[in-house]
Design brief:
Number of strands of chain A: 5
Radius of gyration of chain A: 14 Å
Order of helices and strands of chain A: HEEEHEE
Order of helices and strands of chain B: HEEHEHHEEHHHHHE
Largest interface: A-B, 55 and 46 residues
Largest sheet of chain B: 5 strands, mixed
Structural class of chain A: alpha+beta
Oligomer: heterodimer
Strand order of the largest sheet of chain B: 3-2-1-4-5
Strand content of chain A: 25-35%
Shape of chain B: elongated
Structural class of chain B: alpha/beta
Number of helices of chain A: 2
Shape of chain A: globular
Strand order of the largest sheet of chain A: 1-2-3-4-5
Radius of gyration of chain B: 24 Å
Number of helices of chain B: 9
């Protein structure tokens, strides 16, 4: 991954966290890392625990960022979520997976942030 | 009370003088407060002149979250550390100042830690001893004798002795208490960035009112110590609520609408189509 792209991803997480806070989410963890992988944000939305994958793209890219979260990545996020739930003894807390899609336009205009709630199902993804 | 009445016996009383140039600083740098056995400790310290003495102390033993951190410090002979005292009686600013001077004037500084998972897996005492052993092991110079604050010594291959109130009586232990405290505070400030809901930068994981309120509201984070009663109580309370069929987590913040407890995963929708069902929020970074 090039240096430039890495920086794009990092600022994307900060933008996503701000947008989610504005939408009433409370950020519990940023870049939660465990042996199974990493999830960009863990948040609370009302009574629901939300695991958030942030995807940042410049508008020059061919595909919209939301479609970059493929099954393999979804599996990984679910695995990390299970690790977080176990690590916090969270039991039967209701959970959800959101994707924040950020599109950075050319020429330094404000990025477009789309919060896709419940972007993929909790069940039905085999994690092993 | 003599020094021989307290703590563990010296394992190796005849430890060789490998570094005759090293001895501990004593006297005017430590305020002469009244402590049980203070006179005996001072007399004992004089017998250690010429040996490399490592002081060991810990920070974060009582915190509800984060690691327990220990430090080991061997002071340079003749080190001038005015204001050196037990980290508990110093302001954060004074600790930071002394931390820099200790780093500059110590022959060796070692730091070790044991994380919250280690605290839960064993217990806080064993985790503390583990951190202390690691701190001594991290010293770049071998100590002739290790003096540990408190009454229980970590498992070490070096001669070791415990000194109750050592953080107030032994300069090397006072220095270690400062290094451990400052190191842990910085660590917790970093973890505050990773787990922003709990205010770890303010209370460093200790059980203050606002920390307990955040625990109630958001549940524990992965770095909380689940073997500690206040954390355990939050988990238990939530499990009891779940048994009664009540919402699994504490009420959301005032003003926010209570969301349904049951979030139906849209498991019948093919993966990928959820993209359409989004809600958008424009974000204008300042």
């Amino acid at each position: 991954m090039s240096r430039r792209r890495l920086q794009l991803g990092e600022s994307g997480e900060a933008i996503a966290a701000r947008a989610l806070r504005r939408a009433g989410y409370r950020i519990l963890a940023e870049r939660y890392t465990c042996p199974l992988g990493e999830v960009d944000l863990v948040a609370r939305d009302g009574g629901t625990l939300v695991f958030v994958e942030v995807k940042t793209r410049s508008s020059a890219d061919r595909y919209p960022p939301g479609e970059a979260v493929h099954l393999r990545k979804q599996r990984q996020v679910v695995r990390v979520a299970q690790h977080y739930l176990a690590a916090t003894r969270a039991g039967d807390v209701p959970c959800r997976f959101d994707v924040v899609a950020i599109t950075v336009p050319e020429g330094g205009a404000a990025p477009r942030v789309e919060v896709i709630r419940d972007a993929f199902p909790v069940e039905g993804i085999e994690t092993f | 009370m003599s020094i021989d009445d307290v703590g563990l016996p010296i394992v190796n009383r005849e430890s060789s003088i490998e570094n005759p140039g090293s001895f501990i600083v004593e006297g005017p740098d430590i305020p002469r407060k009244r402590h049980p056995g203070a006179r005996a400790v001072r007399a004992y310290l004089r017998t250690l002149r010429g040996r490399a003495v490592a002081g060991v102390d810990e920070a974060g033993r009582g915190a509800l979250a984060g690691p327990v951190v220990a430090a080991a410090v061997i002071l340079k002979p003749g080190a001038r550390l005015r204001g050196l005292a037990d980290s508990k009686v110093l302001t954060p600013a004074a600790r930071e100042r002394l931390y820099g001077r200790i780093q500059a004037q110590a022959l060796a500084v070692g730091v070790g830690s044991a994380d919250a998972a280690a605290v839960d897996a064993a217990n806080i005492l064993q985790a503390t001893l583990m951190a202390m052993s690691r701190a001594v092991g991290a010293l770049c110079q071998r100590a002739d004798i290790v003096l540990v604050d408190g009454t229980i010594a970590p498992p070490l291959a070096i001669a070791c002795r415990t000194i109750p109130h050592g953080d107030a009586l032994v300069p090397a232990i006072a220095a270690a208490s400062i290094v451990a405290k400052v190191t842990r505070d910085r660590l917790m400030a970093g973890l505050a960035g990773q787990f922003p809901a709990y205010g770890f930068d303010r209370h460093k994981g200790y059980g203050t009112a606002d920390h307990q309120a955040a625990l109630q509201r958001y549940g524990p984070s992965p770095i909380h110590r689940f073997s500690f009663a206040p954390v355990r109580a939050v988990v238990d309370a939530r499990d009891r609520r779940a048994q009664l069929g009540l919402p699994g987590i504490a009420a959301p913040e005032a003003g926010a609408p209570l969301e349904s407890n049951v979030q139906s995963p849209r498991s019948n929708v093919p993966v990928g189509e959820g993209v359409e069902a989004g809600r958008s929020a424009e974000d204008n970074p300042a």
